[in-house]
Design goal:
Blueprint (H helix, E strand, L loop, with lengths): L1 H18 L11 E2 L11 E8 L2 E8 L7 E5 L5 E3 L2 E5 L4 E12 L6 E13 L10 E8 L2 E8 L7 E6 L4 E3 L2 E5 L4 E12 L7 E12 L9 E9 L2 E9 L6 E5 L5 E3 L2 E5 L4 E11 L9 E11 L10 E8 L2 E8 L6 E6 L4 E3 L2 E5 L4 E15 L2 E15 L12 E8 L2 E8 L4 E7 L5 E4 L2 E4 L4 E11 L4 E11 L5 E3 L6 E16 L5 E15 L6 E9 L4 E8 L1
Antiparallel strand pairs: 1-8, 2-3, 3-6, 4-5, 4-7, 7-8, 9-10, 10-13, 11-12, 11-14, 14-15, 16-17, 17-20, 18-19, 18-21, 21-22, 23-24, 24-27, 25-26, 25-28, 28-29, 30-31, 31-34, 32-33, 32-35, 35-36, 37-38, 38-39, 38-40, 40-41
């Protein structure tokens, strides 16, 4: 069930994603034409009312239907849903606000088409205590750099915080820093301004610049390279390059947490996969005023014929009695192995046998992971295997048994999390269940709940009086956690993805708008090999377990 919904969501979001590539040409006034072509034969528009730094938006359509979905993009990387929504802009400026209306078929729940419209909303700084306009200039002389900050504060009460890309900081309107190597550097200035606004005691603005140091004698003017030969899982590495000296030190990192030293290194990989191998050459410098310097080069290698020492066979059986599940895992691992259980309602457990009582009927995914510490040919490593199955608890109401459809969305704000339910029927009562510390239960089509950062299972039950039936929908909702973070940017061979939320899957797009690579993650982190891609710009679309998505730009060097 979850995979089907994910595929449906992927389909409609991919349609939305394609709109990002369509050029938008501004015309006279503050109105921007509809983004891209759309098969929806409806006229859409929206009104907005500016109240200081708050703006109230109201959608309008020529053929409004109860199943329509209204999605707002406010031009500052925040979004919301709903026919009417309120947004607080904390800085003055011009914002491109876009409304996308998704039309949903009432019978199949498929999103059949969408239509978008954008407008420029001007936020004045007259009522904005955070209208900070900051700048700084850079003076460079023989590796000595002086930074001069300025802002639009005539009272001169601003604080200036400098952040340098070597993880050092400084404060003050003017600061000086010594650089010992030629290269490109980045500096960021944060301007902090106290205000008398009780709702916003401190305002800030952060700007960054890059600059180059070119007039220093570089003791690290060397070119580093290495070659490698792969035989099964064994690899021989040999350092090379230009201007190699006998006093140089060679540090190898093999991409699996192990290291070695020397101009030549040997490594045996016990698992097939893609590994990022890095060589760092460290050169001592005789000049007392200079530090030792280093150069690093990394390459991605692919191991395909390594011996599989982690060939663990795993399975488990399940017995269900009412709302209670009994599980027992079986594997080829030793008696010292550890068994970890995970259920899609957020429950986790440990042990070869497992028992769990569900709070509500539904379809759940049950996963077991076995972990064993093994020593093979003098190498000690963690071996693991994972198996997942889906189970049905109770007697979930089938869509064919009840004609009503139900869904909900949520928006985070200062006053808490607002959940808004909707259905294709008007004569419906709404009941909510949230698996927080006290299992919160509320009623009403719209509820406001204070939730601590974390992941929750939220269920909405819609009861139809006219049809004498009910429908339930449950979602994994993540509150107060960030989306995926991509590094490095730009990248050569691989990109690392880390998130506070569980990533379900991903799709990688190129300029052709078609996915060129996709995969399943089911974790909060993953690594993607982009070594085979051409140099250029790509887009990574992440699907999270709570149903949300995010998109990031990737620059391949």
């Amino acid at each position: 069930m979850k995979r089907n919904k994910l595929l449906q969501f992927s389909s409609f979001f991919y349609g939305t994603f394609m709109l990002l590539f369509v050029g938008i040409h501004p015309v006279a006034g503050n109105h921007i034409p509809t983004i891209g072509a759309s098969p929806c034969d409806i006229d859409i528009d929206f009104d907005y009312e500016i109240q200081g730094t708050d703006v109230v938006f109201t959608a309008k359509t020529s053929d409004m239907q109860n199943t329509d979905i209204y999605r707002w993009d406010f031009g500052d990387n925040t979004r919301s849903e709903g026919l009417r929504t309120k947004k607080a802009f904390h800085h003055s400026g011009d914002y491109k606000v876009c409304l996308t209306v998704f039309r949903v078929d009432a019978d199949s729940e498929d999103r059949v088409c969408s239509k978008s419209i954008c407008k420029i909303v001007k936020i004045s700084g007259d009522d904005d205590p955070c209208d900070i306009r900051a700048a700084f200039k850079i003076d460079i002389s023989n590796g000595t750099v002086v930074f001069h900050a300025s802002s639009n504060n005539p009272q001169n009460t601003d604080r200036y915080i400098w952040e340098f890309d070597d993880n050092t900081r400084a404060s003050g309107a003017i600061t000086k820093k010594e650089y010992r190597k030629n290269g490109e550097y980045k500096v960021c200035l944060t301007v902090i301004r106290p205000t008398n606004d009780t709702d916003n005691q401190v305002c800030s603005n952060r700007i960054c610049q890059t600059f180059k140091i070119t007039d220093l004698d570089d003791p690290c003017d060397i070119i580093v390279d290495f070659k490698y030969e792969i035989t099964g899982g064994k690899v021989r590495f040999v350092a090379g390059g230009r201007d190699i000296q006998n006093t140089d030190q060679y540090i190898w990192e093999f991409g699996d947490g192990t290291r070695a030293k020397g101009i030549e290194a040997f490594k045996e990989y016990r698992k097939n996969g893609v590994y990022r191998v890095c060589l760092t050459v460290i050169r001592p410098v005789k000049d007392q005023d200079r530090l030792a310097c280093s150069k690093t080069i990394c390459k991605v290698i692919r191991i395909t014929d390594a011996p599989d020492d982690c060939n663990i066979k795993l399975d488990f059986k399940l017995d269900i009695s009412g709302d209670i599940l009994y599980g027992e895992a079986r594997s080829s691992a030793s008696s010292n192995a550890k068994y970890l259980w995970e259920i899609s309602d957020g429950t986790r457990g440990e042990g070869q046998a497992f028992k769990h009582q569900f709070r509500s009927n539904g379809i759940y995914k049950v996963c077991v992971t076995v972990i064993e510490r093994q020593t093979v040919t003098s190498i000690t490593q963690n071996c693991s295997a994972t198996v997942c199955k889906r189970v049905v608890i109770g007697d979930p109401i089938l869509e064919t048994d009840c004609p009503i459809k139900v869904d909900f969305q949520y928006t985070e704000g200062r006053g808490g999390v607002v959940f808004q339910g909707r259905s294709n029927e008007t004569d419906v009562e709404y009941f909510w269940e949230i698996n927080d510390a006290n299992t919160t239960r509320l009623t009403g089509s719209t509820i406001n709940v204070n939730l601590a950062p974390g992941t929750y299972t939220v269920c909405l039950i819609a009861v139809s009086k006219s049809h004498d039936c009910k429908q339930r929908i449950c979602k994994r909702v993540t509150i107060g956690k960030t989306d995926g973070r991509i590094s490095p940017v730009p990248a050569y061979d691989i990109i690392n993805v880390h998130s506070d939320k569980e990533i379900d899957s991903y799709k990688l797009f190129g300029a052709s708008q078609n996915p060129i690579h996709e995969g399943v993650v089911n974790s909060t982190a993953t690594t993607i090999d982009i070594s085979a891609l051409r140099t250029g710009v790509y887009y990574l679309l992440l699907f999270y377990a709570d149903g949300s998505t995010s998109i990031d730009k990737i620059i391949k060097l």
